Automatic annotation (TrEMBL):
<keyword id="KW-0496">Mitochondrion</keyword>
<keyword id="KW-0689">Ribosomal protein</keyword>
<comment type="similarity">
    <text>Belongs to the mitochondrion-specific ribosomal protein mL41 family.</text>
</comment>
<dbReference type="GO" id="GO:0003735">
    <property type="term" value="F:structural constituent of ribosome"/>
</dbReference>
<dbReference type="GO" id="GO:0005762">
    <property type="term" value="C:mitochondrial large ribosomal subunit"/>
</dbReference>
<keyword id="KW-0687">Ribonucleoprotein</keyword>
<protein>
    <recommendedName>
        <fullName>39S ribosomal protein L41, mitochondrial</fullName>
    </recommendedName>
</protein>
<dbReference type="GO" id="GO:0006412">
    <property type="term" value="P:translation"/>
</dbReference>
<keyword id="KW-0809">Transit peptide</keyword>
<dbReference type="Pfam" id="PF09809">
    <property type="entry name" value="MRP-L27"/>
</dbReference>
<dbReference type="InterPro" id="IPR019189">
    <property type="entry name" value="Ribosomal_mL41"/>
</dbReference>
Length: 129
């Protein structure tokens, strides 16, 4: 194994787990104990007594007739762009009073400064509060 691959393994796995876990470091039933719950008891004779209730059992529901698919579609529906979401969620929730107030602020401040729509909504919200 090369030096570069050994260094990369040290960065990825951590310094305490840097060397490769081979059969010389433990048998196939050896458990290092990192993030794994014990599945039995260790006897004084150094044997392991496996206990069925200590072994994790995963309960999976019956998925026959389940309508959702096991993947996520990355296609977005029509009308989910940022402007559409802003108009339907933020702007409508403030109501008619803010629409009138933002129009007045736009007409007053048009000659002096250029405000973004968000700044105008925040100003109008602070005036009405």
């Amino acid at each position: 194994m090369g030096v570069l691959s050994t260094l990369m393994r040290g960065l990825i796995r951590g310094a305490d787990r840097m060397s490769e876990f081979t059969s010389k470091r433990g048998s196939r039933t050896h458990n290092k104990g990192r993030g794994v719950r014990p599945t039995g008891l260790r006897l004084s004779s150094r044997k392991v007594l496996y206990i069925r209730t200590m072994i994790p059992e995963f309960v999976v529901p019956h998925l026959e007739g389940f309508k959702l698919k096991p993947y996520i579609s990355y296609r977005s529906l029509k009308g989910t762009d940022a402007l559409h979401i802003f108009i339907h969620i933020v702007f409508i929730s403030f109501g008619e009073a803010i629409k009138d107030r933002t129009y007045r602020l736009l007409s007053r401040q048009k000659a002096h400064f250029s405000f973004s729509v968000i700044e105008l909504l925040l100003k109008a919200d602070s005036i009405h509060s």
